[in-house]
Amino acid sequence: MDQMSDSGAAKHTIPVIDRMMDVLAALERRPNGVNIRDLTALLGLPRTTIYRIVNTLQGHDMLRRDDTGAYHLGRRLLKLASHVAAGVSDIDLAAFSQPFLDKLSTELGEGSKLSVLDPEGILVLSASQGRREYALTVAPGQRMPIHAGAASKMLLAHLPPEEMAIWLAKPLIAYTSKSITDPKRLGTELARIKRLGWAQDRGENAPSIHAFAAPVFDRSGKLVAAISVPFLAGAEPSRMEEIRVAAIDAARAMSEAMPV
Length: 260
Prior knowledge:
- By secondary structure, the protein is an alpha+beta fold.
- It folds into two domains: 6-73, Winged helix-like DNA-binding domain superfamily/Winged helix DNA-binding domain (Arc Repressor Mutant, subunit A, Orthogonal Bundle); 78-257, Beta-Lactamase (2-Layer Sandwich), CATH 3.30.450.40.
- The protein has helices at residues 6-10, 15-28, 36-43, 47-59, 75-88, 93-108, 150-157, 161-168, 183-196, 237-257, and strands at residues 63-65, 71-73, 112-118, 121-128, 143-144, 199-201, 209-217, 223-232.
- The strands form two sheets. Strands 5-4-3-8-7-6 form a six-stranded antiparallel β-sheet, sandwiched between helices.
- The chain is elongated and about 60 Å long.
């Protein structure tokens, strides 16, 4: 036979992994979390089986347990998702960007990251840690607000008008007093960002965190990602300018190194 039938393939599965996937699927449908009792009722499995599965998944950071005892999907899944997003491109952006981010963070002492826009929103694909005192920690796999943040606005600014309109029609949450929640005002800001070639965050997602971002293009001129550098509020103007220029230079270097 050239291909196994569905019934034949089913004979070659591992039941415990099937049950594990059932647990993950149940949590996917319940963003507010699910406790052991509810999982037992939902899946019709013994409580001890559910407990062993969630305990194992939690140990691998695939699940997390909150203070109420409810389980949620874990951060490790976001890290795995970042590799899936990289696979959508012709190149592995996560791996390709790492030397540029490492050089940027070494020169500045601040953390840096590469973000992309996927159907779910903004995803941090890769990151480099800074060594400067009080440098902010950044990690791949993080999800960021679509409208609040330097990289987010940069990615949004380069969308075709019809795609941008879809995102701007969604609820725009005010994370801080600096968050732009009016679609018209945000549209004006995005046009300005596209014209300037860089974006700034003055505390839109968190009051104490500022950032600069710059665009990364492929050889056809299409925006594929944004490099950004977050830093603590209160930096001197000269330091802010140093960060802005370094982010632009790193993004330009990565764009120029893109394979044909």
